[in-house]
Amino acid sequence: METVDLSxxxxxxxxxxxxxxxxxxxxxxxxxxxxxxxxxxxxxxxDAEDASAVAFLELWRRRHQVRLVDGSPLPWLLATTTNxxxxxxxxxxxxxxxxxxxxxxxxxxxxxxxxLNQFTTDRALAAAIATLTRTDAELFALVALEGYSIAxxxxxxxxxxxxxRTRMHRARTSLQRELGHDTLVGYxxxxxx
Amino acid sequence: MxxxxxxxxxxxAFRARLVEHVTADxxxxxxxxxxxxxxxxxxxxxxxxxxAAATGLIPLPGGTATTELAETVSGxxxxxxxxxxxxxxxxxxxxxxxxTCLTPGRFVFDDGAFVTCTSAHDSAHPSMYTVPADAITxxxxxxxxxxxxxxxxxxxxxxxxxxxxxxxxxxxxxGVMNENGxxxxxxxxxxxxxxxxxxxxxxxxxxxxxxxxxxTSPEDAVRWQEQNAGIVHYIPVYESDGETQIGVFxxxxx
Lengths: 193, 254
Hints:
The complex is a heterodimer of chains A (193) and B (254).
Chain A: H1 8-16, H2 20-42, H3 45-61, H4 74-86, H5 88-93, H6 96-99, H7 110-116, H8 123-131, H9 134-145, H10 150-157, H11 161-179, H12 185-189
Helix pairs in contact in A: 1-2, 2-3, 2-4, 3-4, 4-9, 9-10, 9-11, 10-11
Chain B: H1 8-26, H2 29-36, H3 40-44, H4 48-55, E1 64-68, E2 73-78, E3 81-84, E4 94-101, E5 105-109, E6 114-117, E7 127-132, E8 140-144, E9 150-162, E10 166-167, E11 173-175, E12 185-189, E13 195-199, H5 200-207, H6 209-212, H7 218-228, E14 233-238, E15 245-251
Parallel strand pairs in B: 11-12
Antiparallel strand pairs in B: 1-9, 2-9, 3-8, 4-7, 4-9, 5-6, 5-8, 10-11, 12-13, 14-15
């Protein structure tokens, strides 16, 4: 019996080869994770939508450089999302024509925003991410926000595990010194497993 | 627990654009460059379809032999419209089209290939192209254009076959670049408009293909382009024997 292989790895293989529909399925699978990640950093639904869109477009543009972790492009995609959030206006420039055609919800976001408010405790974390260098921010967001092990995050970013541990230590020290906010304690003291 | 979610309208619209973007971007670049590369590639490197269509001559080795399978139909339209081609012959592989834009605008075929006309001058030069049959739904060939854009389309069902490259006495293949790659001697037109062939290795060295093999990032490519901007290379053009030089081929510059 022949079955269609819908595993992430198979989708990625097809998508990266230029199969538009496979890329659409990759979007379906990861869009909520990517949007949530962007929202936690940006605290604004419209911006988070744009940052997510940029991340998926970058996933295509840089498809030959994507590093898979356990066959999945998700960690790389999340790291790219972190970076899009940090430089949103610059990141959007490349795709301005495409992004301008997309409908943002024009209605009052109040009800939705209320549901999102529980994420406002991430605000200090978002500010913290902006103070780190690109690679440190990508690494820190993968480990602290998304719960990846340092080894997996390092794999997605092309770092050795040792270098990633050094960077995480440096990032934590820097953040504790500059932004030692209560809400950060959980993230900052978290030991990666 | 409520978790934030992407606005469904935004998600649906973006998904459609993403699929479209990937599909269009994944198409071989050379295909579009031969047809629409602002005259550059069309004028210099002789493309299979373009050469046959433009000159009406028997195609060069490796070029496309095109057989018309139905009567030619044509019409003039404003905005997005479609032309009825009549019943699809079983052996059709595509639809040969000749599009003349009567106003400036962007005219997109069913497979995503497009023609951009910027001035009245473009009206004097129809764009020839073959839309693959699998991009055509039922019997209509469509062109998407801005509401006010005016265009004339002539089209017919065709069967296209790629002819094999020829081999000279030295054992080198010669002919035009096609989906099988590049022959040893690639058909070009010299700076004084004589048809001939350049050696593939000479062309690759001059146009950056060789350099591109050592690129490890898009930044490398940008740097190479910047370093080579404005530099004009001339490489020898030979007869099909690959030895008798008949002129030169220009790469870079205007």
